[in-house]
Structures are given as C-alpha cells and as structure tokens.
Design the sequence.
C-alpha cells in the first residue's frame, strides 16, 4: 500500500504533546524540571510541544509564569521541535497581548482556544481571532475548539471566513469529540488546512478522515508507541496502526477518567517524574484510579 504521508501539510509535526506544568513542593512552577521534561518528550518522539495549554493548567498560571515556561522550554529544545504557547483568553485584549508576547519570546506558534464562559456568537469569534492573528502576523496559529470546556463552539464556516484574512491561521485542534468536525473543516477550508485531533482516543479515526496528527496528553506516557501508530498509518500499514490504537485504549481511557491533567500528572509520578499535584481547584488523583493507572502502565511495559 502506498504512503499517505504527502497528503497534508504538518506545520507543527504529527505528534504534539500538550505538556504538563511541574510544580515544586511549595506549589511554585519548577522551571528546571519543566526543561528536563520537555527534553524527555522530544526524546520520546514529540515533534511539537504546547506549553501553558489546558494540560499545562493555564487557568491557574499567571502570565509571568507562562512566559517563563515558554522561554525555558524554548531554550532547552531549541529548533529540534516546534514550541507552541497557549495564548488564549476569554478577553480579546489579553489574548492579543499574550500572542504578541509569545512571538517576541521566540515561540514557533500559538494555540488559541475559543473564548470561554462569555459564549460569544460566531461574529464575535470572527472578530476575536482576527484581532489575535493580526497581533502577531508572522506567528503560525492553531485554533482550538473544545466546547465541553468553553461552552461555545467555533464553526467550520467561521474558520473558512478567517483564513483569507489571516494567513497565519494554519491549523485547528479539534476537540469537540466529533470525527465529523474534521470532514467539515476540510470541506470548508480545504485539504491544506491542518486539522489535529484533540482527543487521543479519536486519533486513528480522525487520521482516517484527514487529520494530520494529534495534540496529545498520552504522549507523556506512551510517546514512542503513539509515534509508531501515526507512522504506521501514514505508511499505509493500517492493520499495524489499528493494533497500536487498540493497545493504547486502556491508557487513553484512564487518562481521561477524571479531569485532565489530574490523571496524567499521577501517571508521570508513577514513572518517576515528581511533577507535583495540580493546582487548586483541581486535586490529586483518587487512590483507586491511581492503582488502575499503575496496572495499565505496567501492562504496557510488558508488551
């Protein structure tokens, strides 16, 4: 079977990890550990890293902490991988400032989430993202649709209106839980618009309808295996890709058994990464869930 790798552009690579933010025993950001974790993720197959996204607990990080994390990770990984900064906000002026600052700090791109809580109409989203894109016209942007967290969805038709006006909007993280979102985006925006799965468990189905890769949580734990699944798919080895997909399902489910990033931080601790618990109002993983994670991780080690 012929390779599928040529079908769509991949502005940030195929395996992008939404990195957790490590905290020390006092609850402060541990920049040194963040640097070591970023280097580890690169070694495990990540081609891109998102700092200060949902998994990085951006709602409880100050902007100063976020800029320090971006600078630290970018300094550590250099040009080896793409580093994206989470710069979204439900305040357009804040998102504009954060995106411009990310560009100044040396980010390779920005992940910009749909504004949360205030539930703007599509016309408001159009104006919001146009303002953000114009604040750093040379910085490639990935729009991020996750209505389960934001209470608002960015429609493919709205994205298609943005693209002619904002040449730096190059990709989309699809986390609505709907595979059809990928098809709708491709039909509205064309096949050169890079759509990434925002859900580890839907990665393979989304690849099958035109997604180019994933913004992943599970790649903290199984990066090499996820890279093998993606590579197998694009090499036309569909049965092998399906094998990895099924093999990883227990991990995917366990990592989203409760609010992300609670489980993945516990999983990293199981692997020896002392990343600390999430900041309040999130809490540490319950004992029984952590025991399930231990069993799943041990099972993967034996395969």
Sequence:
């Amino acid at each position: 079977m012929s390779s599928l790798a040529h079908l769509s552009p991949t502005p940030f690579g195929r395996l992008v990890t939404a990195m957790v933010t490590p905290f020390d025993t006092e609850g402060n950001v541990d920049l040194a550990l963040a640097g070591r974790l970023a280097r580890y993720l690169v070694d495990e197959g990540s081609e891109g890293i998102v700092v200060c996204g949902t998994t990085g607990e951006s709602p409880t990080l100050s902007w100063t902490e976020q800029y320090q994390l971006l600078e630290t990770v970018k300094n550590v990984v250099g040009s080896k991988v793409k580093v994206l900064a989470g710069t979204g906000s439900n305040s357009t002026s804040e998102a504009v400032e954060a995106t411009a600052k990310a560009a100044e700090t040396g980010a390779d791109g920005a992940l910009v989430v749909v504004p949360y809580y205030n539930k703007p109409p599509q016309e408001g989203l159009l104006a919001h993202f146009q303002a953000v894109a114009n604040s750093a016209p040379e910085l490639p942007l990935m729009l991020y649709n996750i209505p389960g967290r934001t209470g608002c969805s960015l429609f493919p038709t709205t994205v298609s209106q943005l693209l002619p006006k904002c040449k730096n909007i190059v990709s989309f993280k699809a986390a609505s839980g709907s595979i059809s979102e990928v098809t709708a985006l491709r039909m509205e925006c064309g096949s050169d618009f890079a759509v990434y799965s925002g859900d580890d468990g839907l990665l393979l189905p989304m690849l099958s309808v035109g997604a180019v890769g994933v913004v992943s949580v599970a790649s903290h734990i199984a990066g090499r295996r996820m890279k093998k699944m993606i590579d197998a798919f694009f090499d036309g080895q569909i049965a092998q890709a399906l094998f990895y997909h099924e093999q990883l399902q227990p991990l995917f489910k366990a990592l989203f058994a409760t609010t992300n990033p609670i489980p993945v931080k516990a999983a990293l601790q199981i692997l020896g990464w002392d990343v600390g618990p999430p900041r309040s109002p999130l809490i540490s993983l319950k004992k029984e869930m952590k025991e399930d994670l231990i069993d799943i991780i041990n099972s993967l080690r034996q395969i």
In short: The mean pLDDT is 96.
